[in-house]
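With this grant's support, the team has encoded backbone shapes as discrete tokens. A representative record is reproduced below.
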Amino acid sequence: MTLNSHFGVIYLYKLIYIKRLNGGIMRKLSKLILALSFVVSVTSSAFAVTVASWGGAYTDSQKQGYGDPTAAALGVDINWVDYSGGLSEIKAQKEAGAITWDIIDVFAFDTINGCDEGLFVKFDFDKDFPAAPDGTPASEDFFAPMPSECAVGNILYSWNYAFDTRAFDGKEPKTIKDFFNTKKFPGKRAIYKSALTNLEIALAADGVNMGKGGELLYRKLEEEGGVDRAMNKIKELCTDPNGGCVFWSAGAQPPELLVAGEVVMATGWNGRFFNAEVGEGAPIKQVWHGQGLDYEYFALVKGGPDEANAKKALAMMTNTEMLAGSAKYIAYAPYRLSSLEIIKANEPWYKDGKTEMMPQMPTSPQNTKKYFLVDPFYWADNGTEIGEKWEAMKAGL
């Protein structure tokens, strides 16, 4: 069975299950179909550890940076499959009694919900994950605490902004306030289509003290009038005759808009800006002041087809050396602090053999002088209400 036909069976299962045609008969049939796909998958992969991730350059960096080296060290095959996020697929596998994934790359809230629902294994963190080379326990070697007992950090990426180096006659914006300063830096800005991270940077630019990891920003957003203050700052930017807003939705758009000269500054993801600047020679430069750090985690599936080997593989893939390896292939920061020391000591670290990666790491000391950690709890609790206000604000521009 090919990979495409395997996922075709999974998709067929989902259609059958969701529609629940003919009640119990079809549910039994769906379980049989998925169980069959599981048997074929296991037979063809010789019980390889299977990791579900997001695909593209990101999964390539995982596979090359630490997946293949871990597989070689442990003598266990590690296969990577793409998925679209969320917990629906692993829930479907569990419901059918035919789990095919061992490890999943997930967002913070998925680790919480999956842990609560018994989908993922709970970790004894310092027992299950190795210490840093200097003996620092794993629990103290990760940049930020884990959101649940079922999570182990993978990478951190940045919501920062970049500017067109051709736009300002040699002047360079350097702070988050400069992003909103249309008098000194006139021109349109590209910002994310939703409120996420826009409210945080708006308050920071409006003079709110960020606090450690942005805690004071979220405290202000929780106060009466805090969200309105942030939205008014965005509205002011978007309606300014010297400014104006272009809303982006896909990660490739911000650097494209900058290169095309349609905007002079754009928020975006640091990995996309890096690929444009370093990989394609685009005339852009990143600004880290006021960045928002976001996260990715691994979770170990409870009852996966090769849980024992998967647990060993996960421990190795997230050790100091292995996480550093991913930064050879992508400009996302390894979650371990000690991994940065490896990068720093072995520059130039990037795969091209000439690009130093410490200046490109979102968590490096020079890039974390002013930053906030995106708060998944705040957005889970308030995202729907804020989203309605945000769309109303946009409609009135």
Observations:
- The first strand starts at residue 49 and ends at 53.
- Strands lie at 49-53, 78-82, 103-106, 152-164, 189-192, 245-248, 265-269, 284-300, 333-334, 371-373.
- The chain has 17 helices and ten strands.
